[in-house]
């Protein structure tokens, strides 16, 4: 799994429950393997795509997760 850096203190562990934007804004968002059920804000991928992503990501390059439908992202 990969922690998404949303509503966390910069540099803090993904397990740190401090929420700078406030607890009502959520947190603890992850990219993880699909478990066949709903998530509470996480992004889930099949095992194959998740393996590809883990092999391709370089944390040293500061990857960014961008979410939205193809039409919105093309603007």
Automatic annotation (TrEMBL):
Region (Disordered): 1-23
UniProt name for this protein: YkuD domain-containing protein
Originating organism: Streptomyces hygroscopicus
Lineage, uppermost ranks: Bacteria, Bacillati, Actinomycetota, Actinomycetes, Kitasatosporales
